[in-house]
UniProtKB/TrEMBL annotation:
GO terms for molecular function: unfolded protein binding. It comes from Oncorhynchus mykiss (Rainbow trout). This is Protein SHQ1 homolog. Keywords: Cytoplasm, Nucleus. It is found in: Cytoplasm, Cytosol; Nucleus, Nucleoplasm. GO terms for biological process: box H/ACA snoRNP assembly.
Length: 504
């Protein structure tokens, strides 16, 4: 049997199904309608859908067939007039057999179930505490090591790269991931980022940012989405024919994830979407041959098989990688990507799914990157269709409210051309809370260091900051290279400082 191409829409009274069956006879159609169960048969096509609401067969249904286009259009009455059916664009989820839309564990902790037995209902729309306190890392025993050496969606895969040694170096940066624990991956990732950070590239983009300012003005496609009040805050997202075809091709899976795994799955999704938002902005919406490399390089999840325990960790990792690897290394692009990602999640799971489908296409068309589809993206495309609508919106709020005060941990020695001595620093307040930092040049030279950190604006009283942001003002009173700058960026109401000068 062939699963036909189909689309679903609705009005207050009817569910409208459009099914493409070009190679069939007009007189041979069979329909089955029973509550949320719908079946359609027209040799050689068969379509079975599990609907998000109930329909009835009461004589008001009507069907038409366009012979030239091969389109069968069916209007079926809703059991409750005026009811809105959610998720009609989630084609993979609709194709799931009845009874398989939930993937709760078959074995439950009795203490966890006791609340339900006492009459407390389980909350399907569980809200995560995105600001949860982090636990101090403890070394694992030998018996636990095998559990740590997993990766992929929900950390459910292992042994993949033992069979793909040749493709390994072109896809991820970690060597021998099947024998590398999560803590070792993180340590090696941080070491690699610190060693590859290039101060010359960073400063060049910092002071010569005309092209970057142009990229910051770019409006990605989700900027034009208008929230649909009927969809309870979710934006109306349309899918292309190619995207719909890909959704029909996905195989339905059930995902058994405990609370910790679900939390990590969401954090890794934020990491991937951040990388995608940066890539889309810096290419102004036109993917190129470097797009697969950029997305996977900026995502610690995809490049190092990283797992995170907080939103702060995700943002710090993403900020470090933006300043280390891509062509454009400017903190304003980090801020823009965070804002873009927050807008994507705010627009609902359909918007997130559209981004994931775009990533899937980019990786599918790149020879080594297809492995990442198998490990992560395909599962995310299927899983995101099954989750509740409230979680992405709540994540968007938490993403915007997360304080970015963690140190990026990047440090480099300035070249002798930037050296100075007997330096004095004065901070003069300017308009809009911007401060001018002046550095006076002495006769003798001494070593200096540039430490990249993030501080709240309240730190001005104790630490002279170098703001990273939209515009630069230079003190050129000496013949030396610029040693003073003022750069400011306000992100979600929080003034951010990325760099400060410290002196030896």
């Amino acid at each position: 049997m062939i699963t036909p191409a189909f689309e679903l829409s609705q009005d207050p009274t009817f569910l409208i199904l459009t099914i493409r069956v070009p190679y069939t006879r007009t007189s041979e159609f069979d329909l089955y309608i029973d509550g949320d169960d719908f079946k359609f048969y027209a040799k050689p096509y068969f379509l079975r859908l599990t609907l998000p609401g109930k329909i009835v067969e009461d004589g008001r249904e009507k069907a038409t067939f366009d012979i030239d286009k091969g389109l069968f259009t069916l209007h079926v009455p809703k059991e409750t007039a005026g009811e809105h059916f959610e998720g009609l664009q989630m084609l993979t989820s609709l194709l799931a057999p009845k009874g398989s839309r939930s993937a709760k564990p078959l074995v439950e902790d009795m203490e966890a179930c006791s609340g339900i037995l006492d009459g407390e209902e389980e909350d399907d729309e569980e809200e995560f505490d995105w600001q949860v306190e982090q636990e101090v890392y403890m070394d694992s025993s030998e018996e636990q090591l095998k559990e740590l050496q997993k990766y992929g969606f929900g950390s459910q895969r292992s042994g993949v790269f033992t069979r793909l040694q040749e493709e390994l170096s072109d896809v991820i940066d970690i060597q021998n991931p099947d024998r590398t624990t999560g803590s070792e991956r993180r340590r090696k990732r941080l070491d690699a980022e610190t060693s590859i950070f290039c101060p010359d590239h960073y400063l060049a983009d910092l002071f010569e940012d005309e092209e970057i300012q142009g990229l910051l003005k770019f409006r990605p496609w989700w900027s034009d989405l208008c929230p649909d009040s009927i969809r309870q805050g979710e934006a109306a997202v349309s899918f292309t024919d190619d995207e719909k075809e890909q959704l029909r091709k996905f195989t339905n899976h059930s995902y058994i994830l405990d609370k910790k795994s679900r939390f990590q799955v969401w954090l890794s999704l934020v990491d991937i979407i951040l990388a995608y938002c940066y890539e889309l902005r810096t290419t102004e919406g036109e993917h190129n041959v470097e797009s697969p490399w950029t997305i996977r390089k900026l995502s610690g999840t995809l490049c190092w098989l990283e797992t995170y325990s907080s939103l702060q960790e995700v943002l710090v990792s993403f900020g470090r990688r933006v300043l280390c690897y891509p062509l454009y290394r400017h903190f304003s692009l980090v801020s823009a990507a965070v804002q873009d990602a927050a807008r994507v999640f705010q627009s609902g799971k359909a918007c997130v799914l559209k981004c994931l489908l775009d990533i899937h296409t980019v990786f599918r068309e790149n020879e080594p990157a297809y492995i990442l589809n198998d490990l992560y993206i395909t599962d995310y495309c299927v899983w995101i269709q099954r989750i509740g609508a409230a979680v992405p919106v709540g994540l968007s709020v938490s993403l915007q409210q997360t304080k970015r005060t963690e140190s990026l941990g990047l440090e480099c020695s300035l070249s002798s051309a930037y050296a100075f001595s007997r330096s004095s620093i004065t901070v003069k307040p300017l308009e809009n809370s911007i401060s001018l930092i002046s550095v006076s040049q002495g006769d003798e030279t001494a070593g200096g260091h540039l430490r990249l950190s993030a501080f709240q604006s309240a730190s001005l009283s104790s630490l002279p900051p170098l703001y990273i942001g939209a515009k630069c003002q230079l003190d050129l009173s000496t013949s030396w290279l610029p040693l003073a700058a003022t750069l400011h960026r306000s992100l979600n109401g929080l003034d951010l400082v990325l760099a400060t000068f410290t002196y030896d």
